Amino acid sequence: MPSKKEKYDCLVIGSGPGGAPFAWKLASKGMSVLMLEAGPRYDPYKDYSLDEQDWETKGFPEIKKIRHTFGKRQPLDTKYESLKSWNKASGKLNNTKDRSYLRYQQVSGVGGTTLHFQGEAHRLNENAFRMKSLYGVAVDWPIEYKDLEPYYTQVENILGVAGPDKIPNRPRSEPYPLKPHQLSYGSQIVAKACKKQDIELMPNSVAILSGAYRDAPPCNYCSGCV
Question: Which of 65, 81, 186, 194 is deepest in the core (most CB within 10 A)?
């Protein structure tokens, strides 16, 4: 803990995906920032088991179950029933007529929930900011997609996001810093089926390096992040 004599301009509680960027931005402007974190600092070379043969049997550090509640579930439009996710083993993943919700995992440690971050790096569809105006549901955001676009770009360049040049309804001021990953064998099979149905399949935008970036090596495709 810092001594009582030390003075700070700002105190940030939590070092996860909310607190860490907030502290970084303030510090980059010259402010003296103190971060408080409930969990320990993990060493990526010692505390993770992805280089061990039995890594799939071991959990990630400090998963904390938290109490949670859900709001009223939205009814699903029956005309889109055929679009529900399913598999041959268990059938439809959601057998109800309402939207299903997932539980949330909180991670206690320096980095917070980013310690479980698998790299999904998507921008919201620009229409999502006007749900009430366009579709008569929920509410409109007080800002528009164009207001967030510069910050999306800034974060993508910091993380090293790999993705396609153009994604529908997500206009960009500049390309992703890295080219998209090549489709896996399984995705190539899906792509062939999509082509037959005249559906476009594009690579996922992920914060996983497809090439060397900022002194970091590219992904070695060990599948540890699934």
Answer: 194
Q: Can you give the pTM of this predicted structure?
A: 0.79
pLDDT in tens, 196-218: 999 989 999 999 999 999 999 99
Q: Residue 113: its pLDDT value, please?
A: 86
First to last CA, the chain: 37
The domain ranges of the chain are: 1-67+104-117, 121-226
> Cα separation of 63 and 65, whole Å?
7
Residues in a beta bridge with 63: 107
Match 């010692």 to its residue by tokens: 46
Q: What is the pLDDT of residues 18-42, one digit of tens each?
A: 999 999 999 999 999 999 998 889 8
- Residue in the structure block whose two tokens are 């959990």: 59
Q: Classify residue 190 by its DSSP letter.
A: H
91 vs 101: CA distance, rounded Å: 18
Q: In sequence order, which residues have a C-beta less than 8 Å from that of residue 136 and are 6 or more positions away?
A: none
Q: Is the pLDDT of residue 65 over 70?
A: no
Q: Which tens digit of pLDDT belongs to each residue from 153-192?
A: 999 999 999 999 989 999 999 999 999 999 989 999 999 9
Quick one: 214 exposed, middle or buried, by C-beta within 10 A (0-12, 13-18, 19+)?
exposed
Mean pLDDT of the chain: 89
Q: With H, G, I as helix, E, B as strand and everything else as coil, classify residue 135.
A: helix
Q: Tell me the three state secondary structure of residue 56.
A: helix
